[in-house]
Amino acid sequence: MTTLTETYIEREANVLAHNYHPLGVVASRARGAFVYDVSGRPYLDCLSAYSSLNFGHGHPTLRRALRRQLGRLALTSRAIHHDQLADFATELSALVGGEMVLPMNSGAEAVETALKVARAWGYRVKGVPDNRATIIVADNNFHGRTLGIVSFSTDDSARKDFGPFLPGFVSVPYGDAEALEAAIDDTTVAVMVEPIQGEAGIIVPPSGYLKRVREVTATKNVLFIADEIQSGLGRTGATLQLHNEGVHADLVILGKALGGGLLPVSAVVGRADVLRVIQPGQHGSTFGGNPLAAAVGLAVVRLLAPGTLQRRARELGDHLHRRLSGMSLLGVVGFRGVGLWAGVDVDPSLATGRQVAEKLVERGVLTKDTHGSTLRFAPPLIATPGHIHFAMDQLEDSLRSLSAGR
Ligand SMILES: *Cc1c(COP(=O)(O)O)cnc(C)c1O
Is residue 227 in contact with ligand 1, taking CB distance under 6 Å? Predict the structure, then answer.
């Protein structure tokens, strides 16, 4: 670490709340798949801000859309109309296979939105008695950090000392469609799951699970809400991970990459008859659907519409997964993933995920650990096969150096 980096990190520690424990890199600019630190050193970004940077840093088309809109109209609030929102909503709906859009800013806000819509639908359409609605979620879920959302987290560190919690949620084991079916009763208004659990370590459910969730919820008149904030928009080699499974949800939650790595943009997309339960004055956001967000979101949708980036994610993912499958002797005890996304379990007796991530930083690769000895790889979809092999070479070298130091 250079003194420049150390000085900066020390200054932050004095004035920033310690709600994160960042790696020892101080970024000052970035382009494409690379981040450059304050001394100009490049790092291959294999984290992509948790899939917010699916199109890399400063994608020229997205920057052009932002710059153009910045010169015309940035903010109105939705007290009036503006000329960017209809195109954004129309093309986003067409891209993901929905009918109507409710735009928000952050992922957590879009999740809260979907939950409110589901409860209102439960009372107004399904006929659930007042204040009795329940929503089924999955163990080890990650849907954000608001009080409402941490109320149904099963992660102690997300909940401890933040109670009292919001009632009305039931959590069942992830990937177990029978447990989910058994938990449904007359008060159930929705089931909400991540098609792949990103934060939990890129956990891919058994094949057929999402199809079964769809069948069960349809049969029992329960909404199926898919949180595709991290799995969606190209990461898994399809526009949605649901598309890979041939499944259609009632509501899809998008965020992260929807802002093209430039702005926070999120949305709930889905059935018009469901989203129509919300009437003027019942839900909103000052910044949700603002002109800059809509213009960038529209440019993101148009980048994904031809399907080229999704195909690229699949091809790069083949390189990534092939390389990982050859690392068992180096201490990789397991890995999972779909498309350009992998959760890599390192032998816990060799190192923690954090230690491997720090070795990778020394070798110019940015990743993030999660849950003990798991590392996440999610390079931008605009990376090259050479970038993937570079990252995997550095991972092998890091694991060798940890073995040697044992
Ligand atoms: C990141 C994430 C969220 C929360 O998004 P924020 O923008 O951080 O509020 C919700 N769900 C999933 C699956 C996520 O990965």
Answer: yes
Inter-CA distances, 37 with 224, 297, 377, Å: 43, 28, 20
Domain of residue 17, residue span? 4-58+308-404
Q: Do residues 18 and 111 share a domain?
A: no
Reading the chain (406 residues) residue by residue, the pLDDT tens digits are: 778 999 999 999 999 999 999 999 999 999 999 999 999 999 999 999 999 999 999 999 999 999 999 999 999 999 999 999 999 999 999 999 999 999 999 999 999 999 999 999 999 999 999 999 999 999 999 999 999 999 999 999 999 999 999 999 999 999 999 999 999 999 999 999 999 999 999 999 999 999 999 999 999 999 999 999 999 999 999 999 999 999 999 999 999 999 999 999 999 999 999 999 999 999 999 999 999 999 999 999 999 999 999 999 999 999 999 999 999 999 999 999 999 999 999 999 999 999 999 999 999 999 999 988 999 999 999 999 999 999 999 999 999 999 998 7
Residue nearest to atom 11 of ligand 1 (CA): 143
The residues pairing with 101 across neighbouring beta strands, listed in sequence order, are: 269
Of 287, 304, 321, the residue at which a domain comes to its end is 304
This prediction has a pTM of 0.98
How far, in Å, from the CA of 406 to the mean position of ligand 1? 37
Exposure string for 8-32, b = 16+ CB within 10 A, e = fewer: beeeeeeeeeeeeeebebbeeebeb
Active site residue 142: yes
Give the number of domains in the chain: 2
Q: Which atom of ligand 1 is nearest to the CA of 109?
A: 9
Count how many Cα atoms sit within 13 Å of the Cα of residue 204 in the half-sphere of its side chain.
17
> Is the minimum distance from the CB of 112 to ligand 1 under 6 angstroms?
no
Indicate if ligand 1 lies below 6 Å from the C-beta of 229. Answer: yes
Q: Is residue 319 part of a domain?
A: yes
Q: Is 393 known to be catalytic?
A: no
Q: Among the options 250, 256, 287, 335, which is catalytic?
A: 256
Q: Which of 242, 270, 304 is the last residue of a domain?
A: 304
Whether residue 285 is found in the same domain as residue 190: yes
